[in-house]
Amino acid sequence: MRPEHYLNWKATYRSDMKDTLDRNFRNLRLAGFRVIRMHDSGFLWMDLEPEKGKFEWTLLDTVVECAEKNDLDLMFVLGNGAVVYNVNRPRGKDWFARKNGKKNGFVMGNNWMSVLPDMKDWTDFVSALASRYKGRLRYYEVMNEPNLVMPDPVNYMRYLKASYEIIKGIDPAAQVVGICSTGDFNGKTEEYIDAIGAQGGFKYFDILSFHPYDAPLDTAPNRAERQIERIHKLAAKYRPGMPLVQDEIYYLTDLQKIYNGALCGRGWPAGNATRRYAIDLAGKLAGSIPMHISGLEAGDAGHRNTWYPRRFAMHYVPRPHFIASNAFGRFLEGGKFLAKPNISSLLNSFVFLDRDGKEVALIWALTKDGECSFDVPAGVKACDLFGNPLNGKTVSLTEEPVYLFGSDLKKKLETVDFRMKTPYRVLGAAESMRNGAKHIAVEFRNMSPEPRAMQARIAGLSGPQSFSIAADSAKTVYFPLNGKDLKEITLIVVDGGRLYKEKLSIAAHKTTFSGETVKVGGFAEFTPSLTPEGFVFDIRVTDSSATPRVAGEPWQEDCVEFFFDAAPDRNLNRSAYTETGMTRMFLVPPSADGKPAALVDMKMKPMNVKWSLDRNASGYTAHVVIPWKLRGATPENPPSFDLIFSDFANGKKVKSSAWAGGPDNHKNRLNFGRIGKK
């Protein structure tokens, strides 16, 4: 467990800083942390070397001394403030490394300029840093998120190789952490790792790091466990046995829930940190940093509504995240993954061996749907998220993890009777198209371990539907609207001889029909067609000016964005993208700088589909055929979809219009429209 440490050292420096820092570091160690990653920390290169060859080591000396005293290791992140900077912030404008470096173009929008530092400046600084702290700085990470700030892996390789050779030449025991690829800002985490590996880069670092912003938890569309498995496979491809560490994730949510103040642990539940610790330990990662230090404690300066002073407050006030981290550290520091129990898909659980070889399990409900109760098996003890004993026979299980201590825990958990709060749940209701006619789709979830036979009808519509749902599964049932337009329904359900009534709001969707021309935003139109060959789009856009190509960010130039969901009537309670069936692609016309038209997917890879685009003086037309096998749908039951048309001029968006949804289409699948045959 390793927190970020965010300190504005110069702004908060006081004569008693050393004593205060020592107290804070001691508390961090008590919370179970072992390593402090020094990024976003005030230790920018420009602070340590404000002028060429003139170094200011005093503050870093103090931090290193306090870390050593409290048995904490430091991970220094190279390149802070040098490889990227905000053009709207004047600080460092005339700093030598920034002036000597080569501007590498804007990244992450139009405010952040990427820089390729002069290699002599870079190597001189790395050499000075490694020489001064030989044997004292254990970890050096070569840049933060280079796939965003230095997207060409060839450039990153130069700095990675040079840094590794200098650090190892001076301090062979130091560990170099490399790649640090991120999924934030639509970063392609795994593609960048693969690109560095293909160039032989894995021999220039000791530990592979990544930032799982695109896979934060086990409820995210891209499940955390699966991303870890894929990255392990990538590492094994280039260097078997390479240790992995995830060393930053400020927004630890499932990408569905938006917590108030979700940055850095101030807003998302403490249980999410423990869940991520457990996922990373089960994934055999060497380290896990799902916490920024500002999420661990409140201090006594919170009333000032300031970020930094609480670091140096007179009283240290731990937040729930601190206590939960302490419990995980006490129980599982030095632990190893043992097994994953085969239990309800609504729950998650792992069994570990602690440092003494004794079994410890963690179990939790993935979402509120999985909240349940169970009887603690004989010979097993339970503790809550904070390590407090749960002395009763029955445990209520929520999204907060529960610890179990005993033997044969995998076997015992697989035989436990998890009693769900309700035998079934209605996940949601939405308008749908089935065989060319409007229906209401209602999704039911069987919460029990046994199959269920049920009946349901909608008040005011003809005829009940009889259906069965397999154990621990969901099923969508369709009710014909027969020309009616309903915003709300009363659902009547018969389950096990009992009758239930429930009022549901209907998620409305735009609809169109095969062969019908749809106008969008006054400057574009498209005609969708459901053919045996595939889902066909004929597109016409009025746009007389071309824009330059924006590498890796087609949404920042003239383009048509396509969105598809091959299973629109499943997971009706979830607006975030699901794990399967989701597709987003971009059609860009020929650019002003001579680049040809392209059709690419979310990973910026060319789509293997039939398409054409013709540009003329007034705009462009396109013909795109999406084969059914690519989407996993059929002409009778096509995917939901949407198109967004964007027009740029002089690097700025002039207009952008969606047919069905809006600008949040990239994260809200319930925006998409429906199509049927007349």
Let me know the average pLDDT.
Answer: 88
* CATH-defined superfamily of the largest domain: Glycosidases
| Helical residues, percent | 10-25%
Q: Describe the strand arrangement of the main beta sheet, using strand numbers.
A: 1-2-6-7-8-9-10
Cα end-to-end separation:
58 Å
Q: Biggest sheet, open or closed, and with what strands and sense?
A: 7 strands, parallel
CATH class of the largest domain, named: Alpha Beta
Radius of gyration: 28 Å
Q: In CATH terms, what is the fold-level topology of the largest domain? A: TIM Barrel
pLDDT < 50 stretches = 1-15, 300-314
Q: Strand percentage, roughly?
A: 25-35%
Number of strands: 38
What is the count of DSSP helices, taking H or I runs of 4+ residues? 14
How many domains? The number is 4
Structural class computed from helices and strand pairing: alpha+beta
Principal-axes geometry comes out as flat
Which architecture of the largest domain per CATH?
A: Alpha-Beta Barrel
